[in-house]
Amino acid sequence: MRLLTAALLLLIFGLDQFRPEIVSPRPGQALQGRVTITGASNAIGFVSYELAFAYPADPTGTWFLIAQSSQPVQDGTLGEWDTSLVTDGDYTLRLRVLLDDGSSLEVLVPDLRVRNYTPVETPTPASSPVFPTRTLSAVTSSLPAPTSTPLPPNPAALTLERLLSGLGWGALAAASLLFLLFIYTRLRRN
């Protein structure tokens, strides 16, 4: 009977109505301060959901709880993450929906960049999808081939010759100052 009810709900509302997802934040996004996590946690057989974060390189697989609820969410707020309580770095966000048969569904958002105390390297990615564009081969072949432009020499580059020259001039200046000090003390005594 339950399977029949689930099939009927899928036909009426569509499969997308019963699939957990995180809409925001998106993978690669830079986060600062309090971040509202939005999406959906509803699924057929829903019992509860939990929202957590982890360090991507953590070998222990430890997840830190952000929020949990026994109420399903459809296109709304799943929780709020205060990123100022964690160190700047890269994190993975997880939405885990627990089902009444003991199984669970997981949604991961990788490469979230918490940047509260360090500058953001690149702009936050757009939430709209980016599609590849086509180029016509006739247009492309008429364009001139790119040429490489050699870079000018770096004026601040430190070479061995410049280092030795600087040391020589420094030694000459120090010797001159010591000689002048010697002459001054001799004249002062007389």
Task: Describe how the helices and strands are arranged.
Blueprint: H1 2-13, E1 21-24, E2 30-31, E3 34-40, E4 46-54, E5 64-69, E6 76-82, E7 89-99, E8 104-114, H2 137-142, H3 160-189
Parallel strand pairs: 2-8
Antiparallel strand pairs: 1-3, 3-6, 4-5, 4-7, 7-8
Describe the structure in brief.
The chain is an alpha+beta fold and 190 residues long. The chain has helices spanning 2-13, 137-142, 160-189; strands at residues 21-24, 30-31, 34-40, 46-54, 64-69, 76-82, 89-99, 104-114.
Overview of the structural elements:
With 190 residues, the protein is of the alpha+beta class. It folds into two domains: 113 residues, Immunoglobulin-like, CATH 2.60.40; 30 residues. It is built from three helices and eight strands. The strands form two sheets. It has a five-stranded mixed β-sheet with strand order 2-8-7-4-5, with no helix packed on it. Strands 1-3-6 form a three-stranded antiparallel β-sheet, with no helix packed on it. A hairpin with a 4-residue loop joins strand 7 and strand 8. The longest helix has 30 residues.
